[in-house]
Design a protein that fits this description.
It holds the Pfam family DUF3866. The protein is α+β, with helices and mostly antiparallel strands. The chain has one domain. It is built from four helices and four strands, in the order βααβαββα. The strands form two sheets. A two-stranded parallel sheet has the order 1-2. A two-stranded antiparallel ribbon has the order 3-4. A hairpin with a 2-residue loop joins β3 and β4. The longest helix is centred in the last third of the chain and has 19 residues. It is globular, with a radius of gyration of 13 Å. It starts with a strand and ends with a helix.
Length: 78
Amino acid sequence: MALPKLEPAKLELLLQQAAESGISQKHDIAVVDAQPSLEALQEYNIKVTTMGRTVEQDREFFLAAGAAGIYVTNNLIS
C-alpha cells in the first residue's frame, strides 16, 4: 500500500491508523514522494477535481493518488 509523503504529524497518524486497523500486518506500506505527480499536473495544465475540490483544496487526496501511481510505475520498471 502506497502512502504519500506528508508532514510528519499527518504521516504518523496514517501509519498509526494502518497499524491499529491491522492493514500494516496484511500489506507492506511504502511511503512515496508524490510531489512529482502534482508538478506534472501543473506542467501539463491538467485540471482535476474530486467532489468539486481542486488540488489546492484537497492536496493530500491527490498526493495519495499520485503515490499509488508512482509506486506501481516504479515497481513495474524494477
